[in-house]
Amino acid sequence: YGGGCTEMALSASLQHAAQRVPGLQQYAMQAFSQALLVVPRTLAENAGHNSSKTLAHLQAAHHEERPSDDNICDMGIDIEEEAGSGSGGICSMKDRGVLDMVATKQSALRLAVDTVITILKIDQIIMSKQAGGPKQ
């Protein structure tokens, strides 16, 4: 579904999985989970909603319904609602018929992950080089 629903569902699942992973991997998973929230936050801001409150409502909806294989939370940002009208700025993307293309989401996520991996590899190479320049 669209409206930031996919990103919020991925973020909620990642947060849940991170709780079972010890050490630095847990922090990396939590950071990636937080990065996924940029899409729903931006949608809420562009719709004129208070992004913090709207994101809190959306997170509550996604955490309240723990997704299983056949039960996926379909709540996303309601860009048609006027700010302050009572639904917290979220609605069912399924009921509204708001969909995203799977290929687009997969491609964007794959590109983001590949970019992060490349940056981490470069950072690792730079950190492993000896300080002081070449020896004569």
Specify the overall morphology.
elongated
Elements, N to C (H/E): HHHHEEHH
Structural class call reads: mainly alpha
Q: Span from first to last CA?
A: 60 Å
The biggest beta sheet is recorded as: 2 strands, antiparallel
Counting DSSP H or I runs of 4 or more residues, the number of helices is: 6
Helical fraction: 55-70%
This entry's quaternary arrangement is single chain
Number of DSSP strand runs: 2
Largest sheet strand order: 1-2
Strand share of the residues?
A: under 5%
Keywords, separated by commas or semicolons:
single chain; 136 residues; mainly alpha; two-stranded antiparallel sheet; 6 helices; 2 strands; elongated
Molecular structure report:
The protein is mainly alpha-helical. The chain is 60% helix and 4% strand. The protein contains 6 helices and 2 strands; from the N terminus they run H-H-H-H-E-E-H-H. Strands 1-2 form a two-stranded antiparallel ribbon. Helix 1 runs antiparallel to helix 2 (24-36), helix 1 (5-18) crosses helix 4 (51-64) and helix 3 crosses helix 4 (51-64). The protein is elongated and about 70 Å long. 26% of the residues are buried. The mean pLDDT is 87.
